[in-house]
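Sample intake — DNA mismatch repair protein MutL
Collected from: Paenibacillus rhizosphaerae
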Amino acid sequence: MAKIRVLDEHIANQIAAGEVVERPASVVKELVENAIDAGSSRIEVTVEEGGLESIRVTDDGSGIEPEDVSTAFYRHATSKIENSRDLFNITSLGFRGEALPSIAAVAKVELVTASADNGLGRRIVIEGGRLVTEEDTAAPKGTDLTVRELFYNTPARLKYMKTIQTELGHISDYMYRIALSHPEIAITLRHNGNVLLQTVGNGDLLQVVAAIYGRQAAKALLPIHAENLDFTIDGYVSRPDWTRSNRNGISIIVNGRYIRSYGLNQAIQRAYHTLLPINRYPLAVLEVKMHPSLVDVNVHPAKLEVRFSKEQELFPFVESSIHQVLRQEVLIPQPVKQSIGDKDKGSFIQEQFHFSKSPAPQAGPMDGLMDGGEAPLPQDPGPAGHTANSVADGSLTPVSASGSLPVKSPLAAGPEGAGTGFSGPRAQAPAQQGYSGQSSPNAGSVRNPGEAAYAQQKLPYSARETVRENTVPGYRLNLSQSGRVSQSSNPALASRLLAGTEAPPEIPPFPELTLIGQHHGTYLIAQNADGLFLIDQHAAHERINYEFYYEKFGRPADASQELLLPITLEFTPSESEQLTQKLHWFEQVGVYLEHFGGQTFRVVSHPYWFPKGEEKALIEEMAEWVLSERSIDLAKLRETSSILCSCKASIKANQKLTEQEATTLLDRLAACRQPYTCPHGRPIVVSFSTYDLEKLFKRVM
């Protein structure tokens, strides 16, 4: 008995739908491409419930002839190609004739079309691949196709659909690419009555970019045009100071078709070599035109990937063309101004306000390093980024933008020229600071009496609380004049260990080090009996700040303060739609973000201990992370926010530190719970044993 049989057309269409119709975005893609091939100048896409309830695509194209309406729903029925030679000269987006029958096999489809301006059209209704109605009707020229209840007859497919926001994200992303590919077509995307995208169709690509990514992104783009015998490149690429955290901002169009190409993506990124920070990517919209015979579009079920006949020539051409554009620009970032509404105003950093008479003391990331008053505290920051205490020459010492570590602080008092590898004139030791930040009677004078009060108000930190919270369990900091960190037992911890209320420390104690100097303004050099140690000052400060901010993000609402000038942020329409549903996550870390209309959001308050001058960039990165994560939990959000803050608030490489600053950094690092790696996993300390050094100098063989 024969076992091989020919499947009927209905089952064959359902199987084919598994390749063509993967999700609602696949339906939108196929229908919009048909509309473009029909010569439409206006395309409207209306989606309900992420496309699972209904998808409607309306265009003003050439329409379908009445006698071809039913034929269009047969498999491999197409008007795009006639013979095999046409496969090597494809100029249309669709050509296989699989879309309509595949969609009609798994949904309820209604098509109304007219090919003339006489008002007469044709209507056909198909449900699950079976013809229900076909009749004449009144219709304007063009096509109106509605797909309802997608996958209603294939529950297994419907079961594995993602959330509405996920499916909408795929639809929006594709519509953005289509709008960028065809700026000459007026495209509108609506979801549940809300307009997510609307272009005017005047052929201006820059206006389309502004509608999708925002006006600031459009202003940061550079035009590009290059051509040779085989290829023509047009489009825009962003300046290196305008980057994104992922590659989604790169759109590649080949002969009017959006594609994904790993080779072209790499060529674009290579053009930005040494110009972009790590894990940052440019915004680029490139249209590559070539003869259809040089590209094969029939290699992917969804036609999203293609093969180039001359890719070895194309990739270097794209790379060199972008590189030439960047070389011609003065790539010096300009200061960015905050704007509210249509008026451009300067960017202001709001100072911290305390309305209580005696603010509660808290711990800062680099404020207060001593336990028991054994060594001087860091000076209190005064107005305009100066310390309240004067140094030997009577001038005020500036502090860093974050307020966490002074750029130059006075050295400990000592003979001129004495020290351990640090150069520069010595200043007097800072006066002993009290618990609330007030200077002792031995403190230096300030320029006016109000500065001391302002400094006290500006720094409501408790030095002792910080060290007590951050000290490695079982050990306490003792600072000596030599800059060493020693260990002593903690009786309170011992009692808690005996009572079973405290777990023993898992991280070994930080080694006892003596500071020697600094190398290239980046690495601290220290030693002990075991050998030589190099400490990455940026990574060390990152770890210190990370543990500080991680503690702070545990209770961010207590530190959140309202802004006099809210910070405005712009996102794409689909990002705005998703962000509206996730605003409550920002409140969990003390950031109050509200929708300001359209694609704009504004930050009305955030914790005052955010790194100064980095608030907008920090919140933008937090928003990008929230949008990119499928599932968010509070612990992961707290961790990510702490890492972002710690990186922006830390001292950088090539920053000279005084002896006191370097010693302070080591002392605070020793107090960390995990002082051996930065939040990104990079090592903080590298050691060279005495034996290794002796081998290098051939003292041992």
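Post-analysis note: The mean pLDDT is 74.
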